């Protein structure tokens, strides 16, 4: 955003000892870092922190304020909106600057079937953004996750889904009994595993692996979608993926609209030969 609007990027850290984050924020593109030490103010989402932040906004008069769509971010953004009488766009998935320099906030609407452009009537623009959807200016460090699903007891050691270069996505078409076996296949490739909300709801894999509108956003070099229909709610989390390979037995499956390579057929028949063929390429990606 700095280059497009030629404006300054200010990162706000609300934490005790927040100075420790300043170098990494500067490395990621922050021109300035404001630190709010909340040790005597109370929780991040509390009234006192909201008041301090509102004071900073009134002093600095920024063009836009972006919050992560986390519990704290949503809470703080709403407090700010109420206090300063500003509009607020919640859960945007992307941002653009139009020809007139306005911030276009892109937000899924109508059950995720369209992406609506939102323009604020008030300034500063106030937006909450789903974490992970924007490409960081320099490599970001994402936390490791611990898994909790029934068939996925171990952690993906060192293979953070957010940073994985090869990801195998397992959908409902995989079938409950086969999930564990395919997780092992993914591991043998050095790949991470992702999944859909329906699989998570079925309890086959943990929520931490869900990709999509209410899950994570990932940016692998290669994504192999196995038995995944390709609902927008899932593919929105793949916007930054490189090559998407899909195997689905239904030729009309919407995943083929997102895929660079599609195999129409069952994964039972086509996944093993596909993996044999791709193994050397995938190994070169995951070993780096
Ligand atoms: C508010 C909201 C938020 C949501 N958020 C998310 C989200 O964050 N992430 C997400 O993923 N979903 C999300 N969803 C759900 C989403 O809309 C879809 O329902 C879900 O992604 C479908 O999961 P699926 O593709 O695994 O299952 P299905 O829709 O059941 O598709 C299974 C696919 O497997 C194929 N198949 C079956 N057997 C085989 C076989 N043997 N070989 C090959 N292919 C086979 C079928 O042809 C089918 O296309 C959300 C929904 C709502 C309403």
Automatic annotation (TrEMBL):
Q: Where in the cell is it found?
A: Mitochondrion matrix
List the molecular function annotations (GO) for this entry. Answer: electron transfer activity; flavin adenine dinucleotide binding
Is Electron transport a UniProt keyword of this protein? Answer: yes
Q: Which GO terms describe its biological process?
A: fatty acid beta-oxidation using acyl-CoA dehydrogenase
Predominant cellular place of this UniProt entry's protein: mitochondrion
What superkingdom heads the lineage? Answer: Eukaryota
Q: Which InterPro entries does the record match to this protein?
A: DHS-like_NAD/FAD-binding_dom, ETF_a/b_N, ETF_a/FixB, ETF_asu_C, Rossmann-like_a/b/a_fold
Which keywords does the record carry? Electron transport, FAD, Flavoprotein, Mitochondrion, Transport
Q: Which residues form the Electron transfer flavoprotein alpha/beta-subunit N-terminal domain?
A: 2-156
Record text on cofactor binding? Binds 1 FAD per dimer.
Glycoprotein among keywords: no
- Annotated Gene Ontology cellular component terms: mitochondrial matrix
Required co-factor(s) are: FAD
Sites binding FAD sit at: 196-197, 210-214, 227-234, 248
Chain's role: The electron transfer flavoprotein serves as a specific electron acceptor for several dehydrogenases, including five acyl-CoA dehydrogenases, glutaryl-CoA and sarcosine dehydrogenase. It transfers the electrons to the main mitochondrial respiratory chain via ETF-ubiquinone oxidoreductase (ETF dehydrogenase).
What does the subunit comment say?
Heterodimer of an alpha and a beta subunit.
**Family designation:** Belongs to the ETF alpha-subunit/FixB family.
Task: Report what the protein is called.
Answer: Electron transfer flavoprotein subunit alpha
């Amino acid at each position: 955003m700095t280059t497009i609007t030629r404006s300054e990027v200010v990162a706000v850290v609300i934490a005790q000892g927040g100075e420790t984050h300043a170098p990494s924020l500067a490395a990621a593109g922050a021109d300035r870092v404001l630190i709010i030490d909340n040790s005597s103010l109370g929780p991040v989402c509390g009234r006192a922190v909201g008041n301090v932040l509102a004071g900073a906004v009134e002093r600095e008069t920024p063009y836009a304020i972006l919050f992560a769509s986390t519990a704290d971010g949503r809470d703080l953004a709403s407090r700010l909106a109420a206090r300063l009488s500003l509009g607020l766009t919640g859960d945007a998935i992307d941002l653009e600057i139009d020809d007139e320099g306005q911030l276009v906030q892109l937000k899924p609407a109508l059950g995720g079937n369209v992406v609506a452009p939102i323009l604020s009537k008030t300034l500063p623009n106030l937006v909450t953004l789903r974490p992970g959807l924007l490409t960081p200016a320099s490599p970001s460090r994402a936390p490791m996750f611990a898994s909790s699903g029934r068939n996925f007891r171990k952690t993906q050691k060192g293979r953070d889904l957010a940073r994985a270069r090869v990801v195998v996505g397992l959908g409902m078409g995989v079938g409950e009994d086969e999930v564990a076996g395919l997780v092992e296949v993914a591991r043998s490739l050095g790949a991470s595993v992702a999944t859909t909300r329906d699989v998570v709801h079925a309890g086959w894999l943990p929520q931490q692996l869900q990709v999509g509108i209410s899950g994570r956003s990932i940016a692998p070099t290669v994504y192999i979608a196995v038995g995944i229909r390709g609902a927008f709610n899932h593919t929105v989390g793949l916007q930054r993926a490189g090559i998407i390979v899909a195997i689905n037995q239904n030729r009309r499956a919407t995943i083929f609209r997102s895929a660079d390579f599609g195999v129409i057929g069952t994964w039972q028949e086509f996944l093993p030969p596909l993996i044999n063929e791709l193994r050397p390429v995938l190994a070169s990606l995951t070993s780096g």
